[in-house]
């Protein structure tokens, strides 16, 4: 069975087409052209703005011309993570139907937000639907900067209701999200000659669960950068350690699944270091028992390098990353079970020019607390000698429990499935806060089918939830079509 055999056929067929189009963040040229070609093929009016966002329009069904304009919104890019070498810029995603779930072959699936995009496109061309006027807004570069939402061109949308199709749990309607900011810390180091009489090793952490730094941060998944530097810090306390290379994580909004370092120790400490490593492997296995079932720690000998990182920077990097906060900082007092504030120690990179760059990201539904934890990260890395810069950040979306579209979404779900959906806010960032800044009149809600493991190769989508998502969307549009603008 393939995804083209699944129901409802139209949404799965479009999703299948989307998975065949490469669409890494900031490299959306191919998926944008796919959208323009789709519009041309189906005679759907389409326009773009300077940043690359795409808007398609569907006219109202007869008799529904006076209904409010509904904006269906999703993003065209995807997170690119893989368990094996994979060319995301040129290769299609291979999808696998596995019981009630669809996943990819060792890579992210791109259901975040390919399924939202597929639903919006299906609405554009399904002649059987009853709707008022509908706009499909597909934004660029949501995953690495909310660039499309931040730079939405004037006049691109005209609607008063926005349905964000980028949520990940069936039976839930979201009416708020966290704001976020990136904090990037840069160390400048000097190259030193690597001691020739040292023994050198590569220590690796791999196959962690990772996950979305918003939606999964409360699950306690291992942060590979923290696991790695904890071992290095322990070693630095008992003997001299020379750091040659360090690398971990990839994306600011993904919990790092893998990291490695190359380091050297004096031969007299070699056997003690190896014994310490074996003990550390057992400690980590015990701490994450029943959770991180595939996490691996490995060590191997490597050739003596020519250069290493100077001793002062070595200790500064190891100490600061080891002590930097990661995970949930506080929980919401307004909504039970909602993470209020968190921070993700996302990546460590050596891009050249004798620099080590540590990227972190902070989220909170309280603006002051977002900046408080970002400033704490800044203070810690500045104490270690790093230069720290904050990104522009993005605002949160404050819940409006009196929202008309919220009640329509809730009523539609209850009418279809016999139970009320949960009304929630999400700790992940949605583009809604940015839209609300520019269009404060917007009435917004967010919903979607069940996804698990997003931003990691374990990403999967629940097949029955996709059908429920589509039915709910269709009924919402029908209900709105009966309203007067």
Question: How is the secondary structure organized here?
Answer:
Layout: H1 9-19, H2 29-41, E1 46-48, E2 54-58, E3 70-75, E4 95-98, E5 101-104, H3 111-125, E6 134-139, H4 147-150, E7 161-164, E8 172-177, E9 179-188, E10 191-193, E11 199-206, H5 224-236, E12 242-248, E13 259-265, H6 270-287, E14 296-302, E15 307-309, H7 311-323, E16 327-331, E17 339-352, E18 355-364, H8 367-383, E19 387-390, H9 404-417, E20 422-426, H10 432-438, E21 443-446, E22 451-452, E23 460-462, H11 463-481
Parallel strand pairs: 3-6, 3-7, 7-21, 8-20
Antiparallel strand pairs: 1-2, 2-6, 4-5, 5-23, 9-18, 9-19, 10-15, 11-13, 11-14, 12-13, 16-17, 17-18, 22-23
How does this model look, in words?
The model has no long low-confidence stretch (mean pLDDT 96). α1 (9-19) crosses α3 (111-125) and α9 (404-417) crosses α11 (463-481). A hairpin with a 7-residue loop joins β22 (451-452) and β23 (460-462). The chain is an alpha+beta fold and 485 residues long. The longest helix is centred in the C-terminal third of the chain and has 19 residues, at 463-481. It has helices at residues 9-19, 29-41, 111-125, 147-150, 224-236, 270-287, 311-323, 367-383, 404-417, 432-438, 463-481, and strands spanning 46-48, 54-58, 70-75, 95-98, 101-104, 134-139, 161-164, 172-177, 179-188, 191-193, 199-206, 242-248, 259-265, 296-302, 307-309, 327-331, 339-352, 355-364, 387-390, 422-426, 443-446, 451-452, 460-462. It has a 6-stranded mixed sheet with strand order 1-2-6-3-7-21. Strands 16-17-18-9-19 form a 5-stranded antiparallel sheet, with helices on one face.
């Amino acid at each position: 069975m393939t995804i083209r055999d699944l129901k409802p056929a139209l949404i799965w067929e479009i999703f299948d087409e989307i998975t065949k189009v490469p669409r890494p963040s900031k490299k959306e040229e191919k998926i944008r052209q796919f959208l323009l070609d789709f519009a041309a093929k189906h005679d759907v009016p389409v326009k773009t703005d300077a940043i690359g966002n795409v808007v398609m329009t569907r006219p109202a069904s007869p008799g529904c011309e006076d209904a409010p304009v509904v904006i269906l919104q999703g993003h065209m890019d995807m997170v690119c993570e893989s368990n094996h070498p994979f060319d995301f810029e040129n290769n299609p995603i291979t999808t696998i139907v596995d019981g009630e779930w669809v996943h990819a072959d060792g890579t992210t699936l791109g259901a975040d937000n390919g399924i939202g995009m597929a639903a919006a496109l299906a609405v554009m061309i399904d002649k059987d639907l009853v709707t008022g006027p509908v706009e499909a807004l597909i934004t660029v570069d949501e995953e690495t900067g909310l660039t499309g939402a931040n730079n939405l061109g004037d006049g691109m949308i005209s609607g008063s209701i926005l349905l964000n199709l980028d949520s990940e749990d069936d039976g839930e309607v979201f009416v708020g999200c966290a704001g976020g900011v990136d904090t990037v810390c840069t160390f400048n180091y000097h190259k030193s000659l690597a001691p020739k009489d040292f023994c050198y090793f590569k220590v690796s952490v791999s196959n962690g669960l990772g996950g979305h730094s918003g939606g999964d941060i409360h699950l306690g998944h291992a942060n590979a950068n923290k696991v790695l530097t904890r071992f290095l810090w322990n070693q630095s306390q008992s003997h001299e350690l020379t750091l040659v290379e360090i690398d971990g994580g990839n994306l600011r909004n993904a919990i790092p699944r893998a990291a490695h370092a190359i380091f050297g120790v004096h031969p007299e400490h070699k056997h003690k270091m190896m014994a310490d490593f074996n003990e550390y492997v057992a400690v980590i296995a015990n701490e994450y028992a029943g959770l991180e079932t595939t996490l691996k720690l490995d060590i191997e000998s490597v050739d003596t390098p020519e250069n290493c990182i100077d001793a002062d920077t070595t200790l500064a990097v190891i100490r600061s990353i080891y002590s930097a906060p990661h995970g949930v900082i506080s929980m919401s007092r307004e909504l039970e079970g909602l993470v209020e504030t968190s921070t993700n120690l996302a990546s460590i990179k050596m891009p050249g020019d004798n620099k080590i760059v540590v990227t972190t990201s902070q989220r909170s539904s309280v603006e002051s607390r977002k900046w408080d934890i970002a400033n704490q990260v800044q203070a810690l890395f500045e104490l270690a000698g790093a230069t720290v810069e904050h990104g522009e950040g993005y605002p949160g979306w404050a819940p409006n429990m009196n929202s008309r579209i919220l009640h329509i979404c809730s009523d539609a779900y209850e009418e279809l499935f016999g139970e009320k959906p949960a009304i929630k806010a999400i700790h992940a960032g949605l583009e809604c806060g940015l839209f609300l800044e520019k269009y404060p009149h917007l009435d917004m809600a967010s919903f979607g089918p069940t996804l698990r493991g997003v931003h990691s190769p374990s990403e999967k989508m629940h097949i029955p939830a996709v059908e429920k998502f589509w039915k709910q969307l269709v009924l919402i549009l029908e209900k709105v079509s009966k309203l007067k603008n």
